[in-house]
Amino acid sequence: MQKFISKALALTVLTLLSTAVTAQVTSTPASVPAVSSLQANDDISRFYNASKNAPIWFRSGQVEAAPLLASVLKRSAIEGFTRGPQLAAEVEAAIAKAQTGDPAALQAADRTLSVAWIAYVQALHKPTPGMLYGEKWVTPVVPTSFSILGKALRAPSLAEHIKTISDVNPIYAGLRDAAVAEAQKPGGGNSLRYAANLERARSIPATGKFVLVDAATARLWMYENGRPVDSMKVIVGDKAKLGLPTPMIASVIWYATLNPYWHVPDHMAKKIIAKRVLSDGEAYLKKGGYEVVSDWNGTQALPPSSIDWKGVAAGTTQVKIRQLPGPTNGMGKMKFNFANPEGIYLHDTPNKALFAQSNRALSNGCIRLEDAKRLGRWLMGREPVAATAEAEQHVSLPQGIPVFVTYLTAQPHIGEVALGRDVYGWDPRPSATSAVAAAQSTAAGS
Question: pLDDT tens digit string along 245-296?
């Protein structure tokens, strides 16, 4: 999936990158395609009929809005909106016609700008490629034409409204501006990597309370009102050795599990536990607090002697092994589940030494927390302490908290954006970057 994302970027963003950059510094073409087909949009016609043709873009006091829209569209190819530069040309042509003072031209121009704005806003709300959406709450919903135009019409400052919508969130805005600047360097610089990060950052909310996990830097942030209020190190999936990178996920945490079991992954049961049972005997299971169960909800353990451990080690026999709560439990004292098809969750860990390492891509895909208790306190609004020693105590949170697991190899920091390590190899390769130079060279010669 990640390779597909990179190829898509190379085919869409990079081939149009030079056009987008050139459009920022050139004037409107002498001739532009007709916009009559755009004006025939039924939704837009119904909106303008309902509002009695009230102008959106050329209403009194909004003189900055139309030129700003053209500027936003010119740079939008770097955001993957390949129609942006062409729509920008149509917008600028419409603005010029509106300035003639002809009421019909003014009305047509207003609709042309609305068509372009709707297309851009709806593109911003498309799902992030490769991201798994576990809850409807956090799944992107493409807004309707009526909704988009209604908000624009009601905005006290249309220019400020355009800026707020196009900035998406603080991380996105910083990455986009850096990508635009990078694209103007010889060969396009690292603009393709910035563009890849833009796609990943698009699903991050601009406001509200949520958890953000970045697998690239192996760090978790707690956000309130759209701003980080706390952070901690995490350990994420190991792609290099285990082939188990932590996927990108958007979901919701509804409850905490105190004194959790650890359900041992199949590959660990095969490669580690089965081999230790064969060499050390069943005492290894008792010492480690492991038990074999018929299913993950089972309350009765199966006798280890009933298991074909040689078959487990060979991969021909499947077995379900869980580790009881305790000081050596792989989940530590708590975990935080959220719906997703890969069975990924946040959890405590007894092995804190690994957090001192610079490379923290070491897990089987799940996300280990440097300070699970601190996160639990923030999520639950109280000390996350189990009432009894009973295993698997599910405690509901006061409210559901969205969680976004992403992969950002570029992040804004103190007014600058720096590229980090691409630990999973999901960023476009240098060979793709050379496509930028080729595209720019082609455009320059045309």
Answer: 999 999 999 999 999 999 998 888 998 999 999 999 999 999 999 999 988 8
DSSP 332-390: TTEEEE---TT--EEE--S-GGGGGSS--EEESSSEEETTHHHHHHHHHSS----SSS-
Are residues 189 and 286 both part of a single domain?
no
Domain with 275 in it: 210-406
256 and 145 co-located in one domain: no
Question: Cα(301)–Cα(285) distance, rounded to whole angstroms?
Answer: 12
Phi, psi of 244 (to 5 degrees): -130, 65
Q: How many angstroms separate the CA atoms of 361 and 238, rounded?
A: 5
Amino acid at 341: P
Q: Which amino acid is it at 53?
A: N
Query: Which residue do the tokens 């395609």 mark?
Result: 33
Terminal Cα-to-Cα distance of the chain (whole angstroms): 34
Residue 212 CB partners (closer than 8 Å, separation 6+): 204, 220, 221, 223, 228, 403, 404, 406
CATH number, domain with residue 269? 2.40.440.10
254/368 same-domain check:
yes
Annotated catalytic sites, by residue? 347, 366
- For the four alpha carbons of 171, 177, 180 and 181, in that order, the dihedral sign comes to negative
* 277, 191: one domain: no
Number of domains in the chain: 2
Indicate the length of the chain as a whole number: 446
Buried b (16+ CB within 10 A) or exposed e, 66-77: bebbbbbbbbbb
Q: Does this model's pTM top 0.70?
A: yes
Q: Based on the domain organization, do 327 and 286 belong to the same domain?
A: yes
